[in-house]
Design a protein that fits this description.
The chain is of the alpha/beta class. The protein has 14 helices and 24 strands. About 30% of the residues lie in helices and about 25% in strands. The strands form six sheets. Strands 22-23-1-24 form a four-stranded mixed beta sheet. It is globular, with a radius of gyration of 21 Å. The structure holds uridine-diphosphate-2(N-acetylglucosaminyl) butyric acid (EPU).
């Protein structure tokens, strides 16, 4: 079994470059199913999740060529099935994002229910609510096998027709799936209480390059006028704001001095603001953000929210940092109902944390001690690496496939700023 071994690394210093965003790449790769000509995508990160979605596209009949250096050439002219198999769907929740494009292209889609990180129930009711509003009949089949193998959604329509869709919660995935179906529907779709994440804006920009007519992405109301057909395009994926945020916390927790390159600082306002509150000095210079960690971290409180609020995907990394602050910190998680699994792992390293429902209190400062710990999901894995950099002794992180799903060349990048991190096989 592979593991990452981390040692106390002192103050991390130097420059580190952020890759293209995982959570922009996945919906955009799914959306390539909508185009009928060559599509070139640049700055696609080299990640397990990207490989999985490319396999999903290939299984549907698309041609997907990895041209190297993060560039992909995709052509979906000849997709030949509307069905996505359990073997692929179960590996990653985001595979469900092919459902909207398949409805757009074929008026039909059959998808096993999605898998992925175990950070909560993560239902798909809002995706289905949107499809139904566009005139799609969605049959939900729930089998009785434990692993969900025989459960699937069969969705079909004569014609997709634009409509008004109100989302009870601004779900990122539901907003994306509905946008991708609506772009080829007849007439106008209005998504209200839409997610406003930068990844939604990137998807909208990509769909517009393909010939889609979309306005309002980045606000809570997205208006889509359906078009007959979509074509080809060249598109560069935005930088990964969560990878950037993770490196920024690496400076904060170690009292280091790191220049994070290839960042859109506006995507990181809540993260920057909370790091400043914790005592960091932040200097923005175009696409670079320099973070200088303080000698003593000040305790802070965070509450996760949909964008532009504090990102749930940065919650675990901030909690690692809070174990080193001089006093009590609180975290309130409002986006996912089960995203405190990292707490037990931090406790194995000596952290003092108590959880009450969706709120956690972190009593700093604890001297963390290296131990065997488990990445229970992707961001937990990243947070354990950060904790390992300030712990005494060696921290061994298992289940690192979660980390490989979302961080490109993580060891190499972190070694470049002085991180003592190596991959070993047990
Ligand atoms: N939800 C529903 N019904 C739905 C859809 C979502 O109740 O039909 C609930 C979920 O259960 C959850 C909340 O809404 O409690 C937020 O879910 P959302 O749909 O916004 O998340 P997602 O699209 O499944 C994306 C990212 C996640 C990120 C969340 C929130 C991708 C591929 N994934 O997930 O990324 O945490 O938005 O920002 O874009 C990660 O990168 O580590 C990660 C988990």
């Amino acid at each position: 079994m592979e593991k990452l071994v981390i040692e106390n690394s002192g103050k991390l210093q130097g420059n580190i470059r952020v890759s293209g965003a995982k959570n922009a790449s996945l919906p955009i790769l799914a959306a390539t199913l909508l185009g009928t000509e060559d599509i070139i995508l640049e700055d696609v990160p080299k990640l397990k999740d990207v490989e999985i979605i490319c396999d999903v596209l290939r299984a549907l009949g698309a041609s997907v060529e990895n041209l190297g250096d993060g560039t992909y050439k995709i052509n979906s002219k000849n997709i030949n099935t509307y069905e996505t198999k359990y073997e692929l769907m179960s590996k990653m929740r985001a595979s469900f994002l092919v459902m909207g494009p398949l409805l757009g292209r074929m008026n039909k889609a059959k998808n096993s229910l999605p898998g992925g990180c175990t950070i909560g129930a993560r239902p798909i009711d809002l995706h289905l609510k949107g499809f139904r509003a566009l005139g799609v009949e969605c049959e939900e089949h729930y089998g009785d096998s434990d692993n969900g193998q025989d459960s699937y959604i069969l969705a079909h329509t004569e014609n997709l027709v634009g409509n008004k869709v109100y989302l009870d919660f601004p779900s990122v995935g539901a907003t994306e799936n509905i946008m991708m179906a609506a772009v080829l529907a007849k007439g106008k779709t209005v998504i209200e209480n839409a997610a406003m994440e930068p990844e939604i804006v990137d998807l909208s920009n990509f769909l517009r390059k393909l010939g889609g007519n979309i306005k309002g992405a980045g606000t809570n109301t997205i208006i889509i006028e359906g078009v007959e057909k979509l074509y080809g395009a060249r598109h560069q994926i935005i930088p990964d704001r969560i990878e950037a945020g993770t490196f920024m916390v690496a400076a904060a927790i170690t009292g280091g001095d790191i220049v994070v390159e290839n960042v859109i600082p506006d995507h990181l306002r809540p993260v920057i603001s909370k790091l400043e509150e914790a005592g960091c000095i932040i200097k923005e210079d175009g696409e670079n953000v320099r973070v200088i960690g303080p000698e003593k971290l000040i305790p802070i409180d965070i509450k996760t929210l949909p964008y532009p609020g504090f990102p749930t995907d940065m919650q675990a990394q901030f909690m690692a940092m809070m174990t080193q602050a001089e006093g009590d910190n609180t975290v309130i998680e409002t986006v996912f109902e089960n995203r405190f699994m990292h707490v037990d792992e931090f406790k194995r390293m000596g952290a003092s944390i108590s959880v009450n429902d969706r709120s956690a209190t972190i009593n700093g400062r604890s001297q963390l001690v290296g131990n065997k710990v488990y990445a229970t999901d992707l961001r937990c894995g990243a947070a354990l690496i950060l904790a390992g950099f300030v712990a005494s002794g060696e921290t061994e992180i298992y289940n690192i496939y979660h980390i490989d799903r979302g961080y490109e060349n993580i060891e190499e990048k972190l070694r470049g700023i002085g991180g003592k991190i190596r991959r070993e096989i047990d």
